[in-house]
Amino acid sequence: WIYPVRRGRFWLRLLNYFSFVFSSLYGIARSGKQDLIIVESPPLFIGFSALTASWLKKAPYIFNVSDLWPESAVQLGLVTNKTIIRATEWLEGYFYKKAYKLSAQTQGIVEGLRRKNVPSEDILFLPNGVDTELFQRRDKDRELEKSLGLEGKTVILYAGTMGYAHGIETALEAADILRNDEEVFFLFVGDGSERPKLEAIAQEKKLPNVRFIDFQPLEVIPRYYSLSSINLSTLRRYKLSEGVRPSKVFPALASGQPLIYVGEGEGAEIVKESGGGVVLEPENPELLARTILELKNNPSLCQELALKGRAYVVEHYSWDSLIRNWLGQLERTELS
């Protein structure tokens, strides 16, 4: 059981986090014998559950770090209370110290953990990946296309979390620039703390080419990708974004459409290496609008990007290959 909060103030989110920490203890107590426990952070406070589970089951835990929290929240200005910052930094270090191993999702996180004096031999690397069978090139879902009124549209699809760090305002400003092009349509699928603000911006600007769709189950998302002409991933400009690999990049490349990546750092380098998309600087809506039109008017380039992107993630970022590699890392550290 968790206290549900779609979005809200910091204290409400803490209540959401801690409700899971406490309710997870019931599941831990009922579970059988464990050899190894894996926990996901953030939320950082799941470390309390990890410590309890490790003690009850007499098993070590691996702390999978997908974001350097609270550091990222501080850089974005989301947490400013110095007492809270000091307390959470202490907790972070304590949970790291008690973990058997730490697993990082990006090279930036690996480097961040080393800066926090975590020994390299205690760090595993498990990047985001994609189920390349679920996410692949599909025929358009005509029923969904008709229900959304998207027949004949060049659909720009953003599918994923809508948080402050994603800087989706840039996409809305680009939509405003392209409002007189009746073929271009921006489709945002998902939820997050910034969605009410983004919807308010779209309403204030009276954008005729923007629609928001509620959060969808993972198995439904490929239906929306089937409607996409160009996939979109955006990030705001901030220091830690250099070590970010948005998870949406991988299904976007696997689904067989070109990707526009607005951002810097590791995510941008992956898109460049894949050959499956175009990388743009953050917070430049004019450049984004211009790039959308260039891709729209060059279907042969879009086809080339789509094929390269799909081939790249199948080879390098399918979950099967990533998990085999991760288990190999774990076995080598156990033998050393």
What does this structure look like?
The strands form two sheets. A six-stranded parallel sheet has the order 7-6-5-8-9-10, sandwiched between helices. A four-stranded parallel sheet has the order 1-2-3-4, sandwiched between helices. With 336 residues, the chain is an alpha/beta fold. Helix content is 46%, strand content 14%. α1 runs parallel beside α2 (46-57), α2 (46-57) packs parallel to α4 (82-98) and α7 (169-177) crosses α12 (285-296). It has helices at residues 10-30, 46-57, 71-75, 82-98, 107-115, 142-147, 169-177, 195-204, 221-225, 249-254, 266-274, 285-296, 299-316, 319-335; strands at residues 37-41, 61-65, 101-104, 123-125, 154-159, 184-189, 210-213, 230-234, 259-262, 277-280. It has two domains: 10-126, Glycogen Phosphorylase B (Rossmann fold), CATH 3.40.50; 142-313, 3-Layer(aba) Sandwich (Rossmann fold), CATH 3.40.50.2000. α2 (46-57) links the parallel β1 and β2. It is built from 14 helices and ten strands. One of its GO terms (molecular function) is hexosyltransferase activity. Residues 3-129 form the Glycosyltransferase subfamily 4-like N-terminal domain. Residues 143-310 form the Glycosyl transferase family domain.
The CATH architecture category of the largest domain equals 3-Layer(aba) Sandwich
Number of domains: 2
Multimerization state:
single chain
Q: Remind me, CATH topology of the largest domain?
A: Rossmann fold
Q: Could you say which structural class the secondary elements and strand pairing correspond to?
A: alpha/beta
Radius of gyration: 21 Å
Number of E-type strands? 10
The run of helices and strands is: HEHEHHEHEHEHEHEHEHEHEHHH
Q: Walk across the major sheet and give the strand order.
A: 7-6-5-8-9-10
Most strands sheet: 6 strands, parallel
Specify the CATH class of the largest domain.
Answer: Alpha Beta
Mean pLDDT across all amino acids? 91
Please give the count of helices: 14
Give the CATH H-level superfamily of the largest domain: Glycogen Phosphorylase B
* Helical content (DSSP H or I, runs of 4+): 40-55%
What gap, in angstroms, lies between the N and C termini?
Answer: 40 Å
Query: Poorly predicted ranges (pLDDT <50, ≥5 residues)?
Result: none
In percent terms, what proportion of residues is strand?
5-15%
From the spread of the alpha carbons, the general shape counts as: globular
